[in-house]
UniProtKB/TrEMBL annotation:
The lineage of its organism: Bacteria, Bacillati, Actinomycetota, Actinomycetes, Pseudonocardiales. The keyword Transferase applies. It is an enzyme of class 4 (lyase). Belongs to the class-II pyridoxal-phosphate-dependent aminotransferase family. MalY/PatB cystathionine beta-lyase subfamily. It comes from Pseudonocardia alaniniphila. Residues 44-390 form the Aminotransferase class I/classII large domain. This is cysteine-S-conjugate beta-lyase. Its cofactor is pyridoxal 5'-phosphate.
Length: 396
């Protein structure tokens, strides 16, 4: 495919993707679609692994370092996380309060199992990440929805509504996703401070999923929830990973910072391997990304910023207005299905009529039924083809 005229400068590292090679990948994104379908659904980037990560993993394998790791005091990720939080956000944390998990979902399920009981209510701002919502249902926790509000200025959290929901349903936990998936909103310090006040008044345990923090676009700034003040830190489990910001989902490696000493002690009292552990390769890849991946990530952010602007331009051309605001973070674009003129099953209809697989619908919560989520972390030519196919629906 040639470079689309609608795009700005391209970057060969990210834009020279071979479609046939992508279709040969065994991962879920490309393996589950027919040969004529372009997938833009699951939150995997199409880009190659950062060279520094590939080199670190290869070096680990070639030197035969696949025996049992000598991590008596925990993996090096604990110190690496503490260093990264201080360098990027000015948040000083103790590495002693950091623990490894296979991924954020596993960490959430683990702590829910320890800290809550079936029937307990968990407040969650919707729309939201479908596996989180499915986890609450499967574990018998009552998910209490606090819908975001769509305004002329973009997506806005209904913080007063969140407070009302916490009281009405006697919530014990708040599941906070910031930057938000799927809307891409980055909560401001004022908004986070209001949410922290709710958590304090009602003694909520806060799960803060911050996995998309490093994919935040200027002029927006990510603020770790636990960095607000001492009370916020003491009631928060902060979850993050290098997997989204460096495209390493298959490494199954994440970390959690436990602000509550009591919860950390309860966690450490469990059998050490009952809930899984991280691999040597996952740790090696994450360390390489965090310590040596800055140049790759800077280039990635420029490409993603360009792509989100192109999607915004295309959606505005479909509607004649700006009702589909750009995400402030992530590589996921949340927009109204009505923009494409599709019916009650928008994902199925876009797939059938345009041969593009998006995500969206009721899996994101009761207020997600008429919305679609487009993953724009792909090359300029592939994204342009996706938008061209969607434009054919909008014109109809």
């Amino acid at each position: 495919m040639s470079r689309p005229a609608a795009f700005g400068p391209t970057d060969a590292l990210f834009d020279d993707l071979d479609l046939d090679e992508l279709r040969r990948r065994p991962g879920v994104k490309w393996e589950r679609v027919d040969p004529d379908v372009l997938p833009a659904w699951v939150a995997d980037m199409d880009f190659a692994v950062p060279p520094v990560v590939a080199d670190a993993i290869e070096h680990t394998v070639r030197r035969g370092d696949l025996g049992y790791p000598s991590w008596q005091d925990g993996s090096p990720l604990r110190t690496a996380f503490a260093d990264r939080m201080h360098e990027r956000y000015g948040w000083t944390v103790s590495a002693d309060a950091v623990r490894e998990h296979t991924d954020l979902l596993q960490a959430l399920q683990f702590v829910l199992h320890l800290a809550t009981n079936p029937g307990d209510a968990v407040a969650v701002q919707t729309p939201n990440y479908p596996p989180f919502l499915a986890t609450l249902e499967t574990m018998g926790r009552r998910g209490v929805s606090s819908p975001w509000t769509r305004t002329t200025g973009g997506w806005t959290p209904d913080i007063a509504g969140l407070a009302d929901a916490v009281v009405a349903h006697d919530c014990r936990v708040l599941l906070l996703v910031n930057p938000h998936n799927p809307t891409g909103r980055v909560l401001t310090r004022d908004e986070l401070t209001e949410i922290a006040a709710i958590a304090r008044r009602h003694d909520l345990l806060v799960f803060s999923d911050e996995i998309h923090a490093e994919l935040t676009y200027e002029p927006h700034r990510h603020i770790p929830f636990a960095s607000l003040h001492e009370d916020a830190a003491a009631r928060t489990v902060t979850l993050t990973s290098a997997t989204k910001s460096f495209n390493l989902a298959g490494l199954r490696c994440a970390v959690a910072h436990y602000g509550s000493e009591q919860l950390l002690a309860l966690r450490d009292a469990q059998p050490p391997d009952l809930y899984g552990t991280v691999s040597t390769l996952g740790v090696a890849g994450t360390l390489a990304a965090w310590r040596h991946g800055a140049e790759w990530q800077d280039r990635l952010l420029r490409v993603l910023d360009r792509n989100r602007r192109r999607v915004a331009e295309a959606l505005a051309s479909f509607t004649g207005d700006d009702r589909c605001p750009m995400p402030e973070a992530t590589y996921l674009y949340w927009f109204e299905a009505d923009v494409l003129g599709v019916g009650d099953k928008p994902v199925d209809e876009v797939l059938a009529r345009a041969r593009v697989l998006l995500d969206g619908g009721a899996g994101f919560g009761p207020d997600g039924q008429r919305y679609l989520r487009l993953n724009f972390a792909t090359s300029a030519p592939l994204l342009e083809e996706i938008l061209t196919r969607l434009a054919s629906l909008a014109r109809r």
